[in-house]
Request: fold
Amino acid sequence: MKIILSRKGFDSSNGGCPSPILPDGTLLSLPIPSKYDHVKYVDLHHDGKSFVEIIKEINPRTRIKEHWHCHLDPDIRDYGIVEDWLPLFGQEGSSQKHLENQGICPGDIFLFFGWFRQTESVSGKLRFVKTEKEKHILWGYFQVNAVYGSYSKLPPQFLYHPHAIVERFSKKSNCIYSATGTLSLSQDHRGSGTFKYHPSLVLTKEGYSRSRWQIPEFFKDVGISYHTSKSFKEEGYFDSAKIGQEFVVAEDERVIDWALSKIRIGKSK
Reply:
């Protein structure tokens, strides 16, 4: 079983601000803009507000408009916009080719992380807490049940997904992953899901920039794609790659136990 640290959600180029940690602890990963997908930001809601409202509140200078479309992927939170919804995740191009080359297959687990910052509600509107810094935080997980690399083999329930667009399958290395019904490591948990904030889910080392992580010492003995032993710095942090979406960790029981602990912590609230 491999663990994949998968970067998803708003970044400085796509979205322009961190995703919010909501006052109740919800880690609301904001999907990046996309011209080609069907879902719009106004289609997505949380706690009575559309994503457009949320984005404008936390980032008044945003360029995102009501009519903009977004890339809702991974889709692991049911927003009630699709009948017979299923949690799905898609990948394409060089990132999918990397997953193929790393031998990702059923049973492997994605841990999604992203760029987050704490928010507060003031007079009914969200804003970033000025004293809180931005961080990389684990916000969800997904255990692979099956991999679909052909449009003709997609089940009908998958056709809503952004990676089910015919044009994407005309390119090389486009795939959709389905999730397991339950987590093989813990039958008490579903095969995919999102987390509530907990300090243990923060990857960023306290006092450092968001890409400098605090991860267990044993990771030094385990291969992580896009990284080398030089990624571990004498100052006591792991310098995570600035480019790349999918960081595949070599199979190791310690890593699996670490991943399971993060899932249990994230789903404990």
